[in-house]
Amino acid sequence: MRLTRMLALGAVGVVLVSACSLGGGSKPTIKIGSVKFDEAKVVAEIYAQALESNGYTVDRTGIGLGDRSVLAPAVETGQIDLQPEYIGSRISYELAHPAASPAPAANAGITGPTGDSATNLTDLQQLLSPKNLTVLNYTPAVDTNAFVVRSDTASKLHLTDLTDTTAVQGQLKWGLATDCPTNALCGAPGGALQGQYGITAQTIAGATLLSACDTPMADALKAGTIDVGELCSTQPDILVNGWVILNDNKHTQPADNVAPIVRNDFLAKVDKTSFEKILNDISAKIDTTTLASLYKQVAVDHQDVAAVAKAWLQANGFVPKPS
Amino acid sequence: MLDKTITWLTDPTHWAGPNGIPVRLFEHIAISSVSLLIALAIALPIGLYIGHTGRRTAFAVNSANLWRALPSLAVIAIVLPITSSIDPEFGFKVYPTVVAMVVLAVPPILVNAYAGLAGVDRDILEAARGQGMSERQVLSRAELPLAVPVIATGIRSAAIQVVATATLGAVFGFGGLGRYLVNGISQNDTGQIMGGVVLVALLVIVTELLIVLIQRLATPRGLLLATTASAAQSPG
């Protein structure tokens, strides 16, 4: 008697499992990842939920995986299928980490990210193709490196543009990113700060090095440990504390819009057109104000990333609101 | 990886300037020493007191062991807003790390100081009292010397943990050898990372040897001879 009952339950179980997999399983599972910045995590979660509402199964374990030095290899080796990326900064990374066997012509002419988004997208795709990766459309939103001072520093030393700091650099305590000394966009010899803004190697060597765009940098600026901090332009701390972003009047910082990078072998498994449309439609709706606001809700208001993503998707009609 | 490490360590530019190895080594030794001294000043008196008198032992030992549960990075993050409002420069870069290192070093020193004294044979102490020694003389001439090996082990353990963990300070803008780890990871420079690792490891070994030497010098001759004699007898 018990045996029969067990077999019956087992049969029901098999039917249910196969029914479930027939119902939603025709689209493959996609592994989505992101770097640890709250902003990147929110965008990744938005893409994830949008894909889920279109029938895809999402593996989210890669969201917040690490910084670019961890995430980029992960997407190249297939641990991650999709990641949101800053197109300008990724160009710098790709030039420093070229594909193992590229056509030498692939990198020809690309020396670094430009201040123009469309150029950056084309250049980035050229660099990613040998790695079997595709970059989709970018958001109107831009999040790029910003050199920030407190408002009292700005008024005391009359600082509006970054060039205004050249003459008074010795009077400022500088806080720079930990990779600044070797990054051409920052303090490397001949790079943005030294080459374009006349910041001396001595100033850079004497700077406090902290993780860029991160809490310790903001804390240090608030505490007065540093007077100039390297943050990201959509960072909520700037809004909350009334800090002043020094204008990058020499246009050294890259146009850093956000775009999804996807593995070609994943695209081969799905209906490419409809898949790309889902993501491109969403990216088109994210402008700089939206991005800053999403970032603030997670980082400052401490709201849950998934909840923020869901609210935005519902408000913009990508996901049906519960009735 | 090995050749990148050797290349980085043998590059003369890495031995000069404010980010050079001598400067970072000095900063690392300085913060480790200061933290260890503060920890000794806190933990030794308490540990010796409870070990000698036998009072409040459970309370003191359990409280000390609670400190072990605090991850150093968390301590730094918690202390930072407080100390940076006192002093924007040192209060941000130095004091939080010092506090975290003190929290790390106190438990092993305190617990071993207590255990070292508590483990001394009571008969010996009775014999010392019988000889007419005052309590202070019993402590200084009989108890403490016999407890040196255990107390020194506690200090050694604390010192090694502090030297190895002081690398965390670099995350919050401090220098020290941790600077090479943090910068190296961010700049994707394997040579720098492994160079930093090698330097920290060497410093840990030197610290250990130094304390072993001090322990040797502080251990009473009789105890030293007894341990070497029993070591000579036991192999077989």
Description:
- The complex is a heterodimer of chains A (323) and B (236).
- Chain A is α/β, with parallel strands linked by helices and 323 residues long.
- Chain A has 2 domains: 27-142 and 255-315, Periplasmic binding protein-like II (D-Maltodextrin-Binding Protein, domain 2); 145-246, Osmoprotection protein (prox), domain 2 (D-Maltodextrin-Binding Protein, domain 2).
- Chain A has 15 helices and 10 strands.
- Chain A has helices at residues 2-24, 38-53, 68-77, 87-96, 117-128, 151-157, 165-168, 192-197, 201-205, 215-223, 236-241, 264-267, 272-284, 288-299, 305-315; strands spanning 29-35, 57-66, 82-86, 133-135, 145-149, 175-177, 208-210, 228-232, 244-246, 258-263.
- Chain A has a 3-stranded antiparallel β-sheet.
- In chain A, helix 2 (38-53) packs across helix 15 (305-315).
- The longest helix of chain A is centred in the N-terminal third of the chain and has 23 residues, at 2-24.
- Chain A is globular.
- The N and C termini of chain A lie far apart (46 Å).
- Chain B has a single domain, classed as MetI-like (MetI-like fold).
- By secondary structure, chain B is an all-alpha fold.
- Chain B has 11 helices and no strands.
- Chain B has helices at residues 2-10, 21-53, 57-68, 72-86, 90-93, 95-118, 122-130, 135-165, 178-186, 190-218, 221-233.
